[in-house]
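Single Protein Entry

Contents — chain, fold
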Amino acid sequence: MKLSYHWLAEYVEIPDAPKPLGLKLTMATAEIEGSEAHGNDTVFDIDNKSLTHRPDLWGHYGFAREVAAIYEKPLKPMALAVLDPASGPVYPVEVLAPADLCPRYNALVIDGIEVGPSPDWLVERLEAVGARSVNNIVDLTNYVLYEVGQPLHAFDRSKLQGAIGVRMATEAEAFEALDGGKHSLSSDMLVIADQEKVVALAGVMGGANSEVDSSTTAMVLESANFHPTSVRRTAAKLAIRTESSMRFEKGLDPVQTETGVRRFVELLKKICPQAKVVSALADHDRSSHETPLIETRYSWINRKLGTELPSAQIEGILTRLGFGVETQEDQLQVRVPSWRATGDIAIPEDLVEEVGRVFGYDNITPLAPLTPVEPVQPSALHTLILRLRQILSGSLRFSEVYNYAFVGEKLLQQCGLTSEGHLALANPLASDQNLMRTSLVPNMLKITAENLRFKKAFAIYEVDRIFQLEAKANTHFEHESFALCALLCDAAWKGGSDQAFYAIKGQAEHLLAQLNLAGELKVYPPAKADALSPWSHPGRTAEIFLGQTQIGQLTQLHPQIAENFGIKAGVGLLELDVSVLLTLPQAGYHFAGVQRYPTVPFDISLICPEKTLIADVEACIKASSPERVKQVKLFDIYRGDNLGADQKSLAFTTTFAAADHTLGPEEIEALQNGVIAALESQHYLVRKG
């Protein structure tokens, strides 16, 4: 939108030159994008987006009101003609459209007009704001549009057949616009029509079949109010955008329809003195003239702004903007003017903004709010997840991955699962992401297959939510719990090798030791066959317990599942239930002095049944001398035909030490014999020699 400095000056005394005025308007009202000279005038270019909520600013008089409020100057009244009801019979108008589509419609008949060129002052004023001159009548309707913000339209009286009707178009009804464009209308478009044809698109453009031309001597002046959405849809569908449609789209004040007519008649006297109003004003008014009444307090406005403005100053700002103000001590009742009541001002906070912008936000000293700030205590879940990430990404050197929380039926089938037991999405992103995951493993296997194309060995993990059909305890939200999946993959682990299983087992032990949770860590084979996941290797799967609580499972990937994904590498998987880990207490820390005396290593190998748990063997060795056995570490597992199908050989390094002296040869021998005796008492075959 363009704004003329001289046009504003007709209604308010402006103490500033154009440039400082533009700066004040930018800070208080609407953004001035630039300005240019037009003869001896200065024209401002205003960003239309900053006027979207201010239909009153789509005319110069609305901006003049803002300038008067900013500079505390009186606003000169606009000269309006007085319409005589006895001028003649009203022109017949039938408003058939719903009241919300056409809240008000005015029509006035004017005779004795002489169509011709516009006077220089009118041409110059329109050219300043970017409008071309057509003829004196059309130019005058445009002048009122740019001054008042109310679109008008002039029909040639002789080209109208009978009464004007405001109605919905019929499907495929033909219409030729003033610009020569021919359109086929739809039944959702509001039109102005006489008894034979459509003569205008409501709020958008008039028709060529009723335009004012050099032969026109009588006219019907239209000034109406139309629903903004209806006008916008019509304009968009027909690809017609006009100055009128832009204003109607913002939601104009129905009161302005009569103002526009009276202003037009007043100006017509100057350029066409012989013209005469020959009808009373046809006024079909179905609008509500009730405007919002807002109650608030001066102290509340000051508190919101961070100011100490006197009550009189606040009242003065609101009054200059056109608000009606009634006060009683600290209380005030504010009546919103009709031109600000179309969706702009409705609540007390809106009044705060009005006072603040006119007073000047740059005049308000910025102060930080004095609000007590208490440190936020991190949740136990957040702390645990952060610790898991620190250990896995730090000392264990895993890479964290992020996957969608969704899976599809094809991916589930590759993992040996069905869609049963999965929550279905009502509006999935894609057909292969239509279910909520119940485990992190399927997506982890998918990206494992993808990453094997680029790397032969890697370690990845994910900590995130999984979702169950049934709600679980210890969860933040129904159906939701947190889980961890860690995965080791190495193309060197091929065939029947169990390296993947023991590698992931070692990483699991390190991770859980670092968490320092209460309870002895134990790893057992699954108690029930149905406890195995489809991707679990039947002979290389173990359940993980801390004390009596099961916290997860570790396994080597089942060969069939590996084949389904095309994974030609050994894969070890660790699954932990983070929601269960959250319920376990910390073990606390026990500090021991530095070992001052030498340690003595002792390697021992034994043969035992295949199903023997390594943890049981370690416990047996430690129990032989709890005070002297400092560490038991497995360093080799052997299976071979010479041992038998159900046998395996385990080799351990046992470390002896004393806290108060150096172990002597006899004491060392006794400790070694004690370990051997303890193992043999459990029917393990100790390999000697």
Remarks:
- The radius of gyration is 43 Å.
- The CA atoms of residues 292 and 346 lie 6 Å apart.
- Residues 2-71 form a domain with the Phenylalanyl-tRNA Synthetase; Chain B, domain 1 fold (CATH 3.30.56.10).
